[in-house]
Amino acid sequence: MATELSTNHLLGIKYITKDDIELIFKRAEEFKEVINRPIKKVPSLRDVTIANLFFENSTRTKLSFELAEKRLSADVINFSSSSSSVKKGESLLDTVNNILSMKIDMVVMRHPEPGAHFFLSKHIDASIINAGDGTHEHPTQALLDAYSIQERLGKIKGLKVVIVGDIRHSRVALSNIMCLKKLEAKVAVCGPPTLIPKHIKSLGVDVFYNIKEALEWADVANVLRIQLERQDIKFIPSIREYQQYFGINKDLIQSLDSEVLILHPGPINRGVELSSDVADSDASIILDQVENGVAIRMSVLYLLAAKLKIKA
What we know:
The protein has about 300 residues and is an alpha/beta fold. The chain folds into two domains: about 15-135 and about 290-310, 3-Layer(aba) Sandwich (Rossmann fold); about 140-285, 3-Layer(aba) Sandwich (Rossmann fold). It is built from eleven helices and nine strands. It has helices at about 20-35, 60-70, 90-100, 115-120, 140-155, 170-180, 210-215, 240-245, 250-255, 275-280, 285-310; strands at about 50-55, 75-80, 105-110, 125-135, 160-165, 185-190, 205-210, 220-225, 260-265. The strands form two sheets. The protein has a five-stranded parallel β-sheet with strand order 7-6-5-8-9. A four-stranded parallel β-sheet has the order 2-1-3-4. Helix 1 packs across helix 11. The model is unreliable at about 230-235 (pLDDT under 50).
């Protein structure tokens, strides 16, 4: 197994290797032990300063990164675009360069424009971690999802994983597809035709338009919410109709021939894509995903910081 990452950034699953993913998982396993002991802190990043730049609203991802950084003893600076010079017309590059003049080593960024992280990586020296870029990628979410599946089922290779819901507008879907494919899982998507991208099969995935058929096929279902905030036109007649045809409830789960593991990246629209009795059932590992998110992000930060020291 590799002992260091092949890249200085985490721009997307597209840019990392299977060996990188397995190394991140190995370190995450070690950090899970740290966050479950009485003293939950290690001095690994004591000399590293990290800026969290969120140009879009975030609760879970931002808190997860902050907690991971503090567990590693990093110095943390939080930046919100709503109260910054971005509102006055300052460019992304100028904003970041001003922040870097404060001697920042790493930047965790969420940005509404796909490719913003790749652009920055070509213009600044700090390590960049993609915490979501528009509808493009969300690599740490895909890594924690895959790690959570492997932790519960003991493997990824050969498993059948269906991603259900708003595939068109989801950065989680694309990152999950690429991550799972690199780990040799079989991947499918399921949702209304209007929410499935036209060329999705070119990524090597199957497509279902019937939720029961999809769940009968799958070992794992990663269920996404309908992202109404990203839709400039209506892609479904109503939320109620979506729930009727694609919502997963206890009756549907009990009608299946075999058990299906349930994931959800959050936030859950209870009663729409998942009923509460499924979200809170033994088949669900949603709370495991939250815990594993901190461990995975600790792993990524630690491994990229090691690359910084090598480079220095």
